[in-house]
Design brief:
Order of helices and strands: HHHH
Strand content: under 5%
Largest sheet: none
Number of strands: 0
Structural class: mainly alpha
Radius of gyration: 18 Å
Helix content: over 70%
Shape: elongated
Distance between the termini: 30 Å
Number of domains: 1
């Protein structure tokens, strides 16, 4: 039986976490649209779009990151692209949370959970990229 080391699967784990994040954000957007339960994101002065749009944008980004992460095993560039897009999404979500806290004095727990999932995705991709780099160094060392 062919054994694939666990570290070669970190990008697949990142893709699964990102897909879970995308479905969570789709649910949150649907819930906010249907119930109008949490429209606090619309009250941030410098944010001119609604919270449903932000959720859909995050879901689209999470699906895109999942696709890139799942294909990263074939091309390392896609892994780097997925990693940097995940970091961008994490920074964007954090800035929205800081703006909300600055404007309203509270945080959105659903958005914080989504940020945590983006963080986990970034950590898994970083581990995979780091291990890929270590394997490349070992291969160069053994080739001499």
């Amino acid at each position: 039986m062919l054994s694939i080391p666990l570290h070669n699967r970190f990008h697949h784990g990142a893709a699964l976490v990102s897909i879970a994040n995308a479905f969570f954000l789709l649910f949150v957007s649907w819930e906010k649209y249907i119930t109008k339960a949490c429209s606090a994101c619309s009250f941030i002065p410098w944010l001119t779009v609604g919270d449903e749009f932000i959720g859909l944008l995050g879901a689209g980004m999470a699906f895109f990151i999942a696709g890139l992460a799942s294909l990263a095993g074939r091309n390392v560039f896609l892994g780097y692209l997925a990693f940097y897009l995940t970091l961008f999404s994490l920074v964007f979500g954090t800035l929205i949370q800081l703006g909300r806290f600055w404007s309203l004095g509270s945080f959105c727990t659903q958005c914080l959970l989504s940020d945590a999932l983006f963080s986990l995705t970034a950590m898994l991709l970083a581990l995979w990229l780091w291990k890929k780099r270590q394997d490349k160094k070992e291969n160069l060392h053994y080739a001499r």
